[in-house]
Amino acid sequence: MTLLELFQLLKKHLKLVITLPVVCAIAMGIVSFAAMDNTYTATTSMYILAKTDDSGQMSYNDLSASQMLSNDIATLLDSDSVKSGAANELGLSDLDDYKVSVSSETTTRVITLSVTGTDAKETAEVAKAMASSVSTVAQNVGAAQSINVIDEAKTPEVPSGPKRMLYVAVAFLAGIFIAVAYVVLADMLNTRIRGAEEAEELLGIPVVGRIPAMKGGK
């Protein structure tokens, strides 16, 4: 099938090609606004104060070691010890309802903790509690001298998700794909001869006459 034939086929089924993507987009819009709760992300940044050795020099004093230290603290932030400590501080049984992510720069000992949840105020409180808990755990296990908060987590004022318009756009594009695939597949499975040109191509003989369709005649 050539591109021109595809365009002609889609033009023939233009109603379906337009209607299906619109229906998919509307359905996704209803689902995303009615069934998906807003989520909020609170962020706090921390500086890792490395331990010092007997001479008073920092044990972590080069870029490679700093990155290793940042990775250690990032791992601690995702540990059960830190999460349970933060949960106990807030009077919660666990932090399973919150999504935690940690990022760090490759050349510094600054790490950023992001906590995402459905309640803006509680999300900020969880981020603060985790920053406090990781400092305690890091000192207990000897990973760092201390972890100091640079920017304290603030209550987010606007939702960070879900990305409803993105979902609607993806649903619209999916509707176009499904409509085009259906039209092409239906055309491939349709074995009827729909014109003199197709008859000549299939039979290999020229058409020598046509019988016009009669409407309303006797």
TrEMBL record:
Domain Tyrosine-protein kinase G-rich, chain residue ranges per copy: 137-185
Bilayer-spanning residue ranges: 16-36, 165-185
InterPro entries to which the protein is assigned, alphabetical: Bact_polysacc_biosynth/exp, GNVR, LPS_length_determ_N
Pfam family, one: Wzz
GO molecular function: protein tyrosine kinase activity
Top-level taxon in the UniProt lineage: Bacteria
Compartmental location: Cell membrane
Cellular component GO terms, alphabetical: plasma membrane
Main location: membrane
The keyword ATP-binding belongs to this UniProt entry's keyword annotation: no
Keyword Manganese: no
Segments forming domain Polysaccharide chain length determinant N-terminal: 2-89
Keywords per UniProt: Cell membrane, Membrane, Transmembrane, Transmembrane helix
Membrane topology of the entry: Multi-pass membrane protein
The family this protein is said to belong to: Belongs to the CpsC/CapA family.
UniProt-recorded name of the protein: Chain length determinant protein
Originating organism: Collinsella aerofaciens (strain ATCC 25986 / DSM 3979 / JCM 10188 / KCTC 3647 / NCTC 11838 / VPI 1003)
Phylogenetic placement of the source organism: Bacteria, Bacillati, Actinomycetota, Coriobacteriia, Coriobacteriales
